[in-house]
Amino acid sequence: MKTGSCLCGEVRFELRGPLDGVIACHCTQCRKQTGHHWASTHTADADLHFAADSTLRWYRASDTARRGFCGRCGSTLFWKRDGDTTTSVCVGAIDGPSGLELAGHIFVADKGDYYPIAGGEYRRDGY
Ligand SMILES: [Zn+2]
Ligand SMILES: [Zn+2]
What's the CA-to-centroid distance between 5 and ligand 1, angstroms? Predict the structure, then answer.
């Protein structure tokens, strides 16, 4: 099991199930929200348990998805598509080593112009 938290610690959660490889999303929304690019793993909702979530806020970012963040410290934490039974979890929020590896890049056509994508991971223009 892994634990995760926001910067101020008011949002704390447990990831009790398997986690898949890290996806970097370079879309404009992710770049706006994070200041760089998004990097997340995914958990089944049944395996996501909150120890504290009083400051967790959800921003309706589009007609199809919401973005979870801490309303106190501003940490980006989650992305969730309507109707999905999984939640994307920002890898940076995981406490200690994640034990995960970068698997791929999505929305690469929207990436910032100031950094290369240099690794051998897969690259997609969409999801
Ligand atoms: Zn916080
Ligand atoms: Zn994105």
Answer: 8
**Token pair in block for residue 109:** 């056509």
Q: What is the pLDDT of residue 67?
A: 98
Dist. CA 16–CA 12, nearest whole Å: 13
Cα of 106 to ligand 2 centre, how many Å? 7
State pTM to two decimals.
0.94
User: Which residue range(s) make up the domain with 58?
Assistant: 2-123
Q: Which two tokens stand for residue 26?
A: 């370079």
Do strands 122-123 and 102-106 pair parallel, antiparallel, or not at all (unpaired)? parallel
Q: What is the pLDDT of residue 127?
A: 87
Closest C-alpha to 77, from 43, 125, 28: 43
Q: Output the CA 107–ligand 2 centroid distance in Å.
A: 7
Q: What is the CATH number of the domain that holds 20?
A: 2.170.150.70
From CA 28, how far away is CA 37, in angstroms rounded?
A: 9
Domain count, the chain: 1
Per-residue confidence at 4, pLDDT binned at 50, 70, 90?
very high
Average pLDDT, the chain: 97
Both tokens assigned to 116: 């290369």
